[in-house]
Predict the structure.
Amino acid sequence: MEYNAPATEHKFREIARALGVKQVDSMTADEYRKSAVDAVIALSKKIDIPQKLCEIGVKKIDLPQLAKSAFEDVCTPGNPREASQADILALYEKAFE
């Protein structure tokens, strides 16, 4: 979500609103996008979704191949923000730690 935030227009405002964030209409785009991300993270923690890739058995050595597979996936062009294989690897590395 953080990566895609700049390309989401007003969608994250509605996500924030749906997750109970108050006063989203008075927030800047950066503020409601961050609030949406924070609300989704809080919800995922509340329902015990693992927060790091290592928590679900992914090994650091696997990250380059996972990034390659994600980049080559047929759904990649539908992402709101263009991402290179290096971008995806950086996201996976951040999600691993």
The chain has a mean pLDDT of 95. The longest helix spans residues 29-46.
